[in-house]
Design brief:
The protein is of the alpha/beta class. It is built from 8 helices and 7 strands. The protein has helices spanning about 15-20, 45, 60-70, 90-100, 120-130, 145-160, 175-185, 205-215, and strands at about 1-5, 55-60, 80-85, 110, 140, 165-170, 195. Strands 1-7-6-5-4-3-2 form a 7-stranded parallel β-sheet, with no helix packed on it. Helix 3 (about 60-70) packs parallel to helix 4, helix 5 (about 120-130) runs parallel beside helix 6 and helix 6 packs parallel to helix 7.
Length: about 220
């Protein structure tokens, strides 16, 4: 293991009713030309996908973020890497909505939520959604505010997830308690290869716990 310690939608709509008016069962993002939709609601997301399935978004408003969540709920097959960064709108409430949308997702390999306003409650919701997930390999929560409670919630992901190889938690104020909780989980984890914990004030106790877990 490599361990580095340094450093709404304007008018809410019923999604099923909306889709029911079309013959489209699943949005196909693999093709350049998208099937026309009544109001082009998600064109900006499907067109924003790169050829290898990456979508990067930043500075989203609450309404824009809600649109992203609604689109993710349609389980677009071509979405492999989702980055939503530097959004004040991505707080605990928004993270909980995103977590709900991701439950059961089987295509996403990278989730980058760096530099947002996610706290412990948001981290807990994401952790619950990712338990048992077998596709995600990278989770980046750098620069949020999950604290020790958020880190402890992610322990369950490390214990029950067999695909996650990279976990980025720098600048999250997890402290010694958070580091110790993660260390406990690492003792039984055989998948994670990269853990980034820089600038978290883990102290001597946290560092010692991690060192012992990595022996």
């Amino acid at each position: 293991m490599l361990f580095r310690s340094r450093e709404q939608d304007p008018q809410a709509r019923n999604l099923s009713a909306y889709q029911g008016g079309t013959n489209l069962e699943k949005i196909n993002t693999a093709e350049t030309q998208q099937a026309p939709k009544p109001d082009g609601r998600w064109d900006k997301f499907t067109k924003g996908l790169t050829a290898d399935g990456k979508l990067s978004l930043s500075f989203l408003s609450k309404n824009e973020f809600s649109e992203v969540v609604a689109w993710v709920q349609t389980s677009p097959d071509s979405l492999r890497e989702l980055a939503i960064t530097r959004c004040q709108s991505l707080d605990d409430e928004s993270a909980q909505a995103l977590a709900k949308a991701l439950q059961g997702n089987k295509s996403l390999t990278t989730l980058n939520l760096r530099g947002n306003e996610i706290g412990a409650a948001g981290a807990q919701a994401l952790a619950k959604a990712l338990q048992g997930n077998t596709s995600l390999t990278t989770l980046n929560l750098q620069g949020n505010d999950i604290g020790a409670a958020g880190a402890q919630a992610l322990v369950e992901v490390l214990r029950g997830n067999t695909s996650l190889t990279t976990l980025e938690l720098s600048f999250n104020k997890i402290g010694a308690a958070g580091a110790q909780a993660l260390a406990e989980a690492l003792e039984g984890n055989t998948t994670l290869t990269t853990l980034e914990l820089s600038d978290n004030d883990i102290g001597d106790a946290g560092a010692q716990a991690l060192a012992e877990a990595l022996e």
